[in-house]
Design a protein that fits this description.
Alpha-Beta Plaits; 12 helices; 22% helix
């Protein structure tokens, strides 16, 4: 047997698994224990999908175990860090994940790998945009042609209140959520949710369908909608377009009635056995822990950011980076644990957007982790209290990007990328000057292009996303002279 193959039927399994249970250094191969006997390959793969590409899988159903190989060690580290404080569940059963001592899976010569390989092929075909999957792959949990990016969600056994914010937190783990519309029909809480792409919708359905948001209740039933897009008129507690933060809130607007829900063109049959009346928790403390790490209080505007590099991070750096996705009011780096920080955004919607774009992003050599804090606000230090300048109030900062209603910045929010959009450039700034400026931050400049119609704007492509993040932090608002301060943001374009 090849030494890097985790298991065969030769009696060495027990030794190998005992070794895998002990703590070990990070590996892109993960060891999963206590998986249900009836779980499918697709369900196991779904645990890894939010964190990156899954490259191999070995199921050991007789031992209730599995090995999952991620494309990179970084993806595996992010996955373990995420699931360590929040145990994932498959078919309502807790699953335990840790690093394997194996550096890779070699399963080519192992029997019973057909289903695992078919499920992986389905995921890979989906990732590359190939929807023409064979019937064999489709039967193993693959994506069928015609499935879009809009999901319809029914919440069964609604014992605790489920808000739009809770749905956003859960579904954002599987991709970029663009819009959500919630409504009640036939005494059931339902939602229409649109992703940026069909692949994310597919992953979310595969990973969340049948899961319960809270222990024993609020079960998600997910299907694909026939709609290709959602139209949201108001940003409020019932509906939200996360690409259009300038929409009115529609104060006084009545809740979405079933007749209006039907106008969206979706016919959702009633599901028998759900509660006719709702019991809403009156205290956040009485609500059980939701799945997929949705912690803190729904609607909170304070984020807890961890795994920071204490040697490099500053309150100003966090203010600039998170300020790409909303107006940051306060930043507090923990005095005794400087790898942790609290960031207070202007509102809960901006906090959600920042979380969805920055959680898992590399920052100064470490993978940043973001979640909602249990705190409702960031407290400033008392007079005379030792703080070392770690707490800053940016409430009245002139660098806020979203203080003007209807600003174009609302429509230009993109994930971190290696290409940066530059604006407010004076006419005296040359290509070489700007290239050298960005190179001075340690970046490798791959390409540069001024806009043809407006030389005050340009695109610059750097060596990596992490380089671009660092350059944005250092150079946003950089004084270029002639009363011009450089404006830097992430771009969706590639030069």
């Amino acid at each position: 047997m090849n030494n890097s193959t985790p298991a065969t039927a030769n009696g060495n399994d027990k030794k190998k698994f005992k070794r895998d249970r002990s703590p070990c250094c990070p590996s892109r191969v993960l060891h999963l224990r206590q998986i249900p006997n009836d779980v499918t390959e697709a369900e196991v793969i779904s645990l890894g999908l939010p964190f990156g590409k899954v490259t191999n899988l070995l199921m050991l159903k007789g031992k209730s175990q599995a090995f999952l190989e991620m494309a990179s060690e970084e993806a595996a580290v992010t996955m373990v860090n995420y699931y360590t404080p929040t145990t994932p569940h498959l078919r309502s059963q807790p699953v335990y994940i840790q690093y394997s001592n194996h550096r890779e899976l070699k399963t080519d010569n192992l029997p019973n790998q057909t289903r695992a390989q078919a499920a992986l092929q389905a995921v890979n075909a989906t990732r590359s945009g190939n929807l023409a999957i064979t019937s064999t792959v489709a039967a193993e949990g693959g994506l069928l042609p015609g499935q879009g990016s809009v999901l319809r969600v029914i919440v069964e056994n609604l014992f605790y209140s489920v808000t739009l914010e809770v749905l956003y937190q859960i579904f954002s783990k599987f991709g970029h959520v663009l819009k959500i519309i919630t409504f009640t029909k036939n005494n059931q809480f339902q939602a229409l949710l649109q992703y940026a792409d069909p692949m994310s919708a597919y992953y979310a359905k595969m990973g969340l369908d049948g899961q319960s948001i809270y222990t024993g209740c609020c079960t998600l039933r997910i299907d694909f909608s026939k709609l290709t897009s959602l139209k949201v008129k108001y940003n409020n507690e019932k509906s939200r377009d996360f690409t259009r933060l300038d929409l009115p809130c529609g104060d006084g607007q009545p809740p979405l009635e079933p007749s209006r829900a039907a106008a969206f063109g979706v016919s959702i049959p009633a599901v028998p056995g759900t509660l006719g009346s709702l019991t809403v928790a009156t205290s956040a403390a009485s609500v059980p822990m939701p799945i997929h790490g949705v912690t803190g209080v729904p609607g909170n505007s304070v984020l807890l950011v961890s795994n920071l590099n204490p040697e490099a991070i500053t309150p100003h750096g966090l203010f600039i980076l998170f300020g790409v996705y909303g107006d940051v009011h306060r930043v507090k780096i923990m005095f005794k644990k400087k790898e942790n920080a609290l960031i207070q955004m202007a509102d809960a919607s901006q906090a959600q957007i920042a979380l969805s774009h920055l959680n898992g992003q590399r920052l100064y050599g470490k993978v940043l982790h973001a979640t909602f804090s249990i705190h409702q606000s960031v407290q400033l230090p008392r007079e005379g209290q030792e703080d070392q300048g770690l707490t800053k109030d940016y409430s009245n900062s002139p660098l806020h990007r979203f203080k003007k209603p209807g600003s174009k910045n609302f429509q230009n929010i993109f994930p971190p990328s290696a290409t940066l959009h530059l604006s407010n450039i004076p006419t005296s700034a040359t290509v070489d000057y700007l290239k050298n400026l960005f190179a001075s931050t340690g970046s490798t400049v791959k390409a540069f292009r001024f806009f043809q119609k407006d030389c005050k704007m340009a695109l610059i492509q750097l060596g990596s996303v992490e380089e671009a993040v660092h350059a944005l932090i250092e150079l946003h608002n950089y004084d270029l002279g002639e009363n011009h301060h450089l404006r830097v943001s992430f771009s969706k374009s590639i030069i």
